[in-house]
Amino acid sequence: MNILVTGGAGFIGSYLVDTLIAQGNKVRIYDNLEPQVHQGHIPDYLNKDAEFIQGDVNNREMLDKALTGIDVIFHEAAMVGVGQSMYEIAKYTNANTMGTAVLLDLVVNKHRDHIRKLVVAASMSEYGEGLYTCQNCGDLKPDLRREIDMKEGDWDPFCSKCKTPLSPKPTPETTPLQCNSIYAINKRDQEDMTLNIGCSFQIPVVALRYFNVFGPRQSLSNPYTGVAAIFMSRLKANHNPVVFEDGKQSRDFVSVHDIVSANIAVMQDDRANYQIFNVGSGSSISIGDLGKLIIKITGSNQTLDINNKYRKGDIRHCFADISKITKTLGWKPQVALEDGLKELIEWSKDKKSEDLFEESQKILKAKGVV
Ligand code: UD1
């Protein structure tokens, strides 16, 4: 098949490209080589057997060319920092929401006859807080946390009826969305627009809500990269990783290889069409424990700095209920967290990295995001 991967030079897209090529597909990459991530260079890991077109998703003419003769599209191109999205509002919305609008516009108006499937990278961030349970009131979705509570260090959401502390539960796709950042709003837009256009024109589409993806090729130069890469960059610089809040906030970390296998599964199976699936590990770890695990694996002498501050737009807990994708397609994650972290750390050993935390903090503080 002829496959287009937007964002195919990125962390997730590039692994997807490798697998698609290994399976015998012809793959075209469309990527703007975002300077914040790639410094404008083609990354050395980019698959030599892929065709590469440099272009922005908002460049209609270039994207039109990139869509020529394509059967399947994986739309991975996006700006990904939750914190950065809170002050680069137009830039994020242009790249994420408008970029998807341009892609869908071209699909509908010029390429409808040959596109057999479109898979869009959506995000767990669309849920806002995940699903919780209250010992008195049962399962519920709490309100987003209030600034005044967080300023007091009251980090955990509570039951709005009986004020009891809540326990997080696996979050299924049916959980109402409650976006808490511009990034999350953008991701919801991408998902909604793709499903709307797919259903309206009978173009098979699938949205995958990725949880916290980690693994090799995660940018070590983008200060808004994910927490695992930021912690590693701190340790490499012999600095303590800095943990926001009290370190007990949790996430569901899923290996990039599992994300790739989920994309392949939905491409190959028509039962996935017009559906939304969570893609996570199905379990959660606190950010404090993640930091300790990374310190243990690297053998570093550093410790964690728990700073009791918070980042606007952050949620407290969310982890995936993966029963829908498992029951529908038989997909299951294969990479255990510790193995995945070892792979990330091994890969990063000979890579240059700066202390990403220092750089992002300067800006986020100046903008009032932390
Ligand atoms: C991440 C992704 C987002 C994706 C979402 C899906 C990145 C940059 N963002 O957002 O694209 O859609 O997962 O779940 O990969 N933290 C620290 N110290 C740090 C950095 C972060 O304590 O130095 C904390 C944050 O406050 C937060 C947690 O770690 O509580 C996770 O942060 P981050 O890795 O940025 O991920 P998300 O915001 O969940």
From TrEMBL:
Superkingdom of source: Bacteria
Transmembrane segments: none
Family annotation (SUPFAM superfamilies): NAD(P)-binding Rossmann-fold domains (SSF51735)
Gene3D superfamilies assigned to the protein according to its UniProt record, in alphabetical order: NAD(P)-binding Rossmann-like Domain
Residue ranges of every copy of the NAD(P)-binding domain listed in the record: 169-343
Domain NAD-dependent epimerase/dehydratase residue range list: 3-130
Family of the protein in this entry: Belongs to the NAD(P)-dependent epimerase/dehydratase family.
The protein's name in its UniProt record: Nucleoside-diphosphate-sugar epimerase
Organism: Candidatus Roizmanbacteria bacterium CG_4_9_14_0_2_um_filter_39_13
